[in-house]
Amino acid sequence: MHAPAPSAAVSAVRFAGVVRHFGSVKAVDGVDLSIAPGEFFAMLGPSGSGKTTCLRLIAGFEQPDGGHIEIFGETVEGLPPYRRPVNTVFQDYALFPHLSVGENVAYGLKVRGVPRAEREKLAREALALVKLAGLEARRPAQLSGGQRQRVALARALVVRPKVLLLDEPLGALDLKLREEMQVELKGLQRALGLSFVFVTHDQGEALSMADRVAVFNEGRIVQVGPPEEVYERPATRFVAAFVGAANVIEPDMAAVLGAVPRLYSLRPEKIALLAHAAPAPAGAAVVEAVVVDVSYQGPVRRLAVRTPGATLVAAVPAAQHAPAPGETVRLAIPLAALVPMEGEPKGGGA
């Protein structure tokens, strides 16, 4: 599936039929994409899906074996990293331990020949931008993980790139700090108006931060769109399973529900648990199921249930009465919540 081109006349980043092979492995296999100026664009996928290789192709750390890459209208195939208007923030931060925080941030300016007084001023401004004002004299070892991540951001931003590339930048942080940094990163991106290209395997990060998400699998983009669209209307079995939890409704089960017999996805939160005497809601099919497992997850309980046609997962409010494993329950499945997907039924080579 090709990414639709944003409306901007010139894309911040554009791939046209880009290919990158490592021996017999097709790491990137004919990728087309267009990222708009000022867009927060997430590349989401499992390890080995091609997302990080695409980021390295934008950065210039890899060169394509085929296809075309542009950054703000400039052809960049063959250009080394230092001649591209981009900078990269890595998961491991890649800070120099023997340099102070201020020297780390100013390093790129020093390489570019910026005079000392000017680079120190710009480094202070960049550190203030990421809420680290006054820490210029410290060493990286004296900082927390979140502070080191901010230093890496400041170092990348101080050279004023047109595109900021972020390679799993929050992967080394604990959950609470990661969630805080997600909010800060998005706020920083909005304030600066830069194009951010963010690589992650964490679907929660991609959905919460990005303007658009490209889902990668086996070197290709299998779906691209706003987070709500990718989550609510997954195009394939792979997207449905990878971007959040989803039930895959096979054609036989769809027929039982009264829908056209084809492949559908069904999000667990769309399934309602009915009281035994409650009438069927309008537009919903009602099926009986046996509860296999119940797990408490804060605001919801997840029920694994076995119906005559499939084993499903339902997410019901935690405040609702929880059935016990082995209990028979009634489920209401709104037919409008069944999202048609591409692909073959199970066992059919999807």
From TrEMBL:
Residues 13-243 form the ABC transporter domain. GO terms for molecular function: ATP binding. Pfam families: ABC_tran, TOBE_2. Keywords: ATP-binding, Nucleotide-binding, Transport. InterPro entries: AAA+_ATPase, ABC_SmlMolc_Importer, ABC_transporter-like_ATP-bd, ABC_transporter-like_CS, Mo/tungstate-bd_C_term_dom, P-loop_NTPase, Transp-assoc_OB_typ2. The keyword Zinc-finger does not apply. SUPFAM superfamilies: MOP-like, P-loop containing nucleoside triphosphate hydrolases. PANTHER family: SPERMIDINE/PUTRESCINE IMPORT ATP-BINDING PROTEIN POTA, SPERMIDINE_PUTRESCINE IMPORT ATP-BINDING PROTEIN POTA. Belongs to the ABC transporter superfamily. This is ABC transporter ATP-binding protein. It comes from Ancylobacter oerskovii.
